[in-house]
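This protein record is not my work; I was only asked to verify it. Would you go through it and say whether the fold makes sense for this chain? Here is the record exactly as it was handed to me.
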Amino acid sequence: MSTANDHAPTRQTRGGRWFMAFIGLSLAIIGGLFVFLMARSYMRAKEMRNWPKVPCIILASELEERRHDPNSPMEYRHSVSFGYEWQGQGLLGEKTTLRGNPWTNKRNLAEQRLAEFHLGMNTECLVHPQNPQLAILKPDSLAPGYSIWFPALFMIAGLGITLNALAGPHRSES
């Protein structure tokens, strides 16, 4: 014959449930943060594809080098400058992508970017409609939208762990 105290949760099992709930909630919050950031990047990249395209010409295209200190490796970057016209006004752009022109320690990668937009080249640039001083040569990648499922798994699993921990032990009636 069992008494009511036999089924009462002990202090140790309650502490374990709260610990699991904390772990699950932490996992869900971190997963949710990454879902939010990736969704925002995807939406921004998708929006860029709707920016107006205007003809532009590459006015300067060169390889920049820098070294932070004598012990660090040399870094390289493709520096570009292009001219375009927006509503009758001549403007100057300097960004390949919205994030700018990244530095790399791989010279050949910077040279590939340099060859992609050579001096005097006629191409098209994308102009931000609300801020025409911002123009880019290439839109951001849509990859975050295709990869959003991965942090979503962590968010869903974390919520499941939290709910399971807070629900307590499942008792079968005898």
Strands lie at 53-66, 75-86, 89-93, 122-127, 135-136. DSSP finds four helices and five strands in the chain.
